[in-house]
């Protein structure tokens, strides 16, 4: 096992202000410094960027970082420069002068980190310039984008391997938060000249609370969720551009600082809205999945899904944008039977091979089961990534008193009703038949005369809706028609109907209204809370003066530690988490003054 050089921990403290590495960082950094190819799969918020930042500082050599988003590149450059690390980016939003300054610093050997997009890497003679600058390594962030098996495939990432080869002998490292076995194999084959050393760390993010709910007046459900997070920054993901705009207006009318973000907005509006979210506190981004990859805002306190996500990987990546500072964060995912049917239909309509279609259906089924699982959400989520865990005791299912019961008889009744009504009706009609409700539609179709009419009076309509949804989630039912919807049996459904297969069902959870996230959040006394508010005001002033996001000055975790420790001197302030020598010199006096005024 490679060992870290002695100056690594000293620089971690003096530059970044951290007393120790996060789990997994030290071994990866040691492997990177050893010089061989490295692929690191680490959860969002675990400090992946440190794995290329610190080696560049230790070696005083150039690392080229490939990143998918200009906003993320600019953000990392700001953060590195605030720490006294020479960093630059080459991108289309820079002025010609800024790009030339970056190239000049690169040629002079003054840069430690150069951030570029995959497209830029092969443009404007950059390869030739880089060959002369002789970078030590090429670091590929969001490496899963190279793989068609990944949830966020980007064709331009395919050229990175060719660029690495053109750069000659240099180290290649890849970093991502989500990559299953197929995606990891694809990354290794496409990016690395030889097999990389693989680091696969726990996917668990215990600071993030996991909550799901069946859609029932979703605007009201989301409004209740937002009321618990007044004044906090968060993201609400939607399935369509129009829905982002409608919900952003709705929440703004309710008094929230909400703005829309999607790829259909003009570039100026998109940039303005993203900058407001990154720079200001308490802004809610209502967005499509076009927003968020690489969003490096550490104090996102919640992520909600107004519609069902596309896959388990996408869900994990999206909720991972919350709580990157390690403090408690909250999530809520709304879903419905219609969402499930829509997602399955989309897979069936794709022009892809049957093997790929089969795998995509399997992946979607895993997401449907996460929605409908009878056991701990965190256990189910981690099991998807082949990781075992005990019940967390904190998710909606662990706290919601869910009952699991033998579902064979109710499932057979439901499946029989689907079959006997012609395999073309939806959940509402099937529930009415099972409940024995002689509605106009039931009588018109003669379904009040079939054997299963009234066979399920022991369950309410919402309970039958839940049973049908669970049968759809496990693949016992499928959509009867892309145009008209309704249910039809699958071979699995036939096996359950005829007693060849058993099934367990669950009652819908009764989630407590009071949020445990509030109980987990740092418990500050009145005086500390007052000091923290003063420190945040000072941070906001400095951020506005410098034109940077507030967290570039100091993260929330640093201000909380500062408010609790109340350092009286600059030397004492060095003991605060996240205060290194550069930031101490730059901001120490201002925050000591703010502390003194607040005491």
In short:
The protein has 599 residues and is of the alpha/beta class. It folds into four domains: 194 residues, P-loop containing nucleotide triphosphate hydrolases (Rossmann fold), CATH 3.40.50.300; 192 residues, Rossmann fold (3-Layer(aba) Sandwich); 103 residues, Arc Repressor Mutant, subunit A (Orthogonal Bundle), CATH 1.10.10; 77 residues, HRDC domain (DNA polymerase, domain 1, Orthogonal Bundle), CATH 1.10.150.80. Helix 5 links the parallel strand 3 and strand 4.
Overview of the molecule:
The chain has 599 residues and is an alpha/beta fold. The chain has 4 domains: 7-200, 3-Layer(aba) Sandwich (Rossmann fold); 208-399, P-loop containing nucleotide triphosphate hydrolases (Rossmann fold); 404-506, Winged helix-like DNA-binding domain superfamily/Winged helix DNA-binding domain (Arc Repressor Mutant, subunit A, Orthogonal Bundle), CATH 1.10.10; 522-598, HRDC domain (DNA polymerase, domain 1, Orthogonal Bundle), CATH 1.10.150.80. Helix 18 crosses helix 21. Residues 511-522 have low confidence and may be disordered.
Overall pLDDT, averaged? 89
CATH homologous superfamily (4th level) name of the largest domain: P-loop containing nucleotide triphosphate hydrolases
Structural class: alpha/beta
CATH architect. name of the largest domain: 3-Layer(aba) Sandwich
- Sheet bearing the most strands, described? 7 strands, parallel
Looking at how many chains there are and whether they match, the oligomeric state comes to: single chain
What is the distance, rounded to the nearest whole angstrom, between the alpha carbons of the first and last residues?
49 Å
Q: What is the tally of helical segments?
A: 28
Q: In total, how many domains does the architecture comprise? A: 4
Shape: globular
CATH topology of the largest domain: Rossmann fold
State the helical fraction: 40-55%
Give the class-level CATH name of the largest domain.
Answer: Alpha Beta
**Number of DSSP strands?**
18
Low-confidence stretches: 511-522
CA radius of gyration is: 27 Å
Estimated share of beta-strand residues: 5-15%
| Order of strands across the main sheet | 3-4-2-5-6-1-7
